[in-house]
Design the sequence.
């Protein structure tokens, strides 16, 4: 039995985020491509400062694929 979970093709890993960017800014930036179901930045349990990366999940796989093409290398928040 394979214990590895299936990766959701609608979800994107986003790294290199400025510490000035919050969940709302991440959501807004990716919503330009299509409807976003969830967008959140991973935060440190101590103090709540985020770790510079997060996840965006689209409603449709096609939007996730288009976001990779259109937004890869885009600067967000410096």
Sequence:
């Amino acid at each position: 039995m394979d214990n590895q979970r299936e990766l959701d093709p609608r979800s994107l890993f986003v790294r290199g985020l400025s510490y000035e960017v919050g969940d709302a800014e991440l959501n807004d930036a990716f919503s330009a491509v299509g409807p976003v179901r969830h967008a959140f930045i991973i935060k440190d349990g101590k103090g709540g400062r985020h770790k510079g990366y997060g996840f965006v999940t689209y409603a449709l796989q096609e939007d996730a694929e288009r976001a990779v093409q259109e937004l890869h290398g885009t600067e967000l928040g410096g």
About this structure: The first strand starts at residue 11 and ends at 15. The helical segments are 23-31, 61-71. The chain has a mean pLDDT of 89. The longest helix spans residues 61-71.
